[in-house]
Write a structure and sequence with these properties.
Elements lengths: L1 E2 L2 E2 L33 H10 L2 H23 L5 E6 L7 E5 L3 E4 L3 E4 L9 E4 L3 E6 L4 E4 L3 E2 L18 E3 L5 E4 L4 E3 L7 E4 L7 H14 L3 E4 L12 H14 L2 E3 L8 E4 L7 E5 L6 H14 L6 E7 L9 H14 L3 E8 L8 E8 L7 E2 L8 E9 L3 H14 L6 E6 L6 E9 L6 E8 L5 H18 L5 H14 L2 E5 L4 H14 L2 E6 L5 E6 L2
Parallel strand pairs: 14-15, 18-19, 22-27, 23-24
Antiparallel strand pairs: 1-2, 3-4, 3-8, 5-6, 6-7, 8-9, 9-10, 11-12, 12-28, 13-14, 15-17, 16-17, 19-21, 20-21, 23-25, 25-26, 27-29, 28-29
Length: about 525
């Protein structure tokens, strides 16, 4: 069967016809093929706890996430902690991870800084955790005994003197950020200078700065680009974003070369029209399109634009195409952006070969996006795809995820896609059909990956977010900030205030004067709202 122009085959799954011809299956047994509203979070949580093992896993993930986040907020980092884990799940291979290697705290695990010349972060799921302790000292949490005591990370000596940290006031109070990204404010004689090593210190600062510069017409200098990374400076993916932005707005650019640690970007007027962008590797198509989309939608031109990008559609550490189509797109459309996406071909790492076409109709000012305190889900869809691999791999992922999602109405689909090289991806779309809000949880697999672990990781990420009862998951929370800033208003709740989000808050303020504010509501719940200057 055909989905867009991508071939999906699901020969051995129960089939029910729907408007896209995809195979689907409900895990509800006698209610097979029917979709019912998911129960409120309180009822779901009680049922989950009644099931014992699954409920304990979710509570453990929530406990560990909260413990690490509290430590990060109090100390501005995790360097006073150490994490004891099982290496690759081996029974007797215990490893100790220094807290300063942790770059992100996710719903279902932590990300570590890459090793040696590897460009990609390392992901460690919570189910491999044995203990969390003060470096060289007492345990704060252990797998056998849980929390040792009401724990908070130690405050490093001289912490009060540091400028870049995040203070959390009492639960339910505003989170006050002193995290700075501006090296020099714009004046009549000089440009705005942004510190590319601040905050998350990677491509996010660059992409947000490019989008805001195009949308506001403000030139900027980005210095110390990715200075703290193993391979500092512009990588090919980042350079593609710079060149694509320059192409669309006729910008004058200095320093746009591989490895460059400094660029100067002076935007011109947005040029509507047809543009083709070749990343040249399996770099993320989604990140390039997101950089260009909203500035094109806000241009005063009445002519549509058609942007074709070739590269990777389902690659690690970047939003896969289903996230772009099912989560990000409905929300920017809700703000009034006239954007359409078409998946032409799928591309995995490293062979690439993916192609996406984005059509943008200039739509004038964006409307504020205000989301409710939580999402009332009425539909779940779990899909796995493979290229040049056995479809059994995707079915094993679906089965493992499905075991954790028992009791939830969910459609399942597996299939093969045509792509130049082997690849595997799994994603779960949790949608509120009434509001159009979608949250996507995904994982990228491989021929040598643990299919069951991939499936469980996706389901666990969904369940951990669902337990918080918030309106959006952390990745979508990051992506919502730019459209809200350009609309001049909006609010939502999320389950984590990530380093990407905190960095976006500061970059947005530097360009627009708008201050996105954040409140810690407790129990892994945060409220984000835009307040104009």
């Amino acid at each position: 069967m055909e989905i867009g122009r991508t071939h999906i085959a699901a020969p051995n799954w129960p089939k029910f016809s729907d408007r896209r011809g995809s195979a689907r299956l409900s895990l509800l047994g006698p209610r097979r093929g029917k979709l019912a509203a998911i129960e409120p979070v309180e009822a779901r949580t009680n049922a989950l706890h009644d099931r014992g093992c699954e409920g304990r896993k979710v509570r453990v993930m929530s406990t560990l996430r909260d413990l690490l986040n509290r430590a990060r907020w109090r100390d501005g980092g995790l360097h006073e902690l150490e994490v004891h884990v099982l290496h690759r799940g081996a029974p007797n291979d215990r490893r100790v991870i220094a807290g300063n290697r942790i770059t992100a705290v996710r719903a279902n695990g932590i990300e570590l800084a890459p090793e040696a010349d590897d460009e990609d972060p390392i992901f460690v799921p919570y189910h491999r955790f044995l203990a969390v302790a003060v470096a060289g000292g007492a345990e704060l949490w252990s797998k056998d005994h849980g929390m040792a005591s009401p724990a908070a990370a130690p405050v490093a000596e001289g912490e009060e003197a540091r400028g870049a940290r995040l203070d959390v006031v009492d639960a339910g109070k505003e989170i006050v950020s002193e995290f700075g990204v501006v090296l020099r404010e714009a004046t009549n004689d000089s440009l705005l200078v942004i510190d590319g090593s601040a905050g998350e210190g990677g491509g996010q600062i660059l992409r947000t700065s490019l989008s805001l510069s195009m949308a506001t017409g403000k030139p900027f200098v980005l210095e110390r680009i990715r200075a703290g990374r193993k391979k500092p400076g512009l990588m090919r993916q980042h350079l593609t974003c710079v060149k694509a932005a320059a192409l669309v707005c006729g910008a004058e650019v200095e320093g746009a070369t591989l490895g460059s640690s400094r660029i100067v970007f002076r935007p011109g007027a947005i040029r509507s029209g047809d543009h083709t962008i070749e990343i040249g590797t399996a770099g993320s198509i989604s990140l390039v399109l997101q950089t260009l989309a909203l500035p094109l939608a806000l241009t005063p031109s009445t002519s549509p634009s058609r942007i074709t990008v070739r590269g990777g559609t389902h690659v690690p550490w970047s939003p896969p195409f289903p996230f772009l189509e099912q989560a990000w797109l409905p929300l920017v459309r809700r703000a009034g952006a006239g954007i359409d996406l078409e998946l032409i071909s799928t591309g995995f790492n490293p062979a690439a070969g993916g192609e996406v076409v984005m059509t943008v109709l200039p739509s004038g000012p964006l409307a504020p996006i205000h989301l409710g305190e939580s999402t009332v889900l009425s539909r779940l869809r779990l899909q796995g795809i493979v290229s040049d691999l056995s479809e059994a791999l995707a079915r094993r992922e679906l089965t493992a995820a499905g075991e954790l999602l028992k009791g939830h109405p969910v459609e399942l689909a597996s299939g093969t896609v045509r792509s130049p090289g082997p690849g595997n991806a799994l994603w779960l779309v949790a949608r509120d059909e009434g509001t159009g809000i979608g949250n996507v949880f995904s994982a990228i697999g491989a021929s040598n990956a643990d299919a069951e672990a991939i499936g469980r990781s996706v389901a666990e990420a969904f369940l951990a977010w669902r337990e918080t009862g918030t309106s959006v998951e952390p990745h979508l929370a990051d992506q919502l900030m730019l459209p809200i800033a350009l609309a001049g208003g909006g609010s939502y709740t999320c389950s984590e205030l990530t380093l990407h989000s905190r960095t976006n808050i500061e970059v947005i303020h530097a360009f627009t004067g708008h201050r996105l504010r954040a409140w810690d509501l407790g129990d892994s719940r945060f409220r984000i709202a835009l307040v104009a200057r």
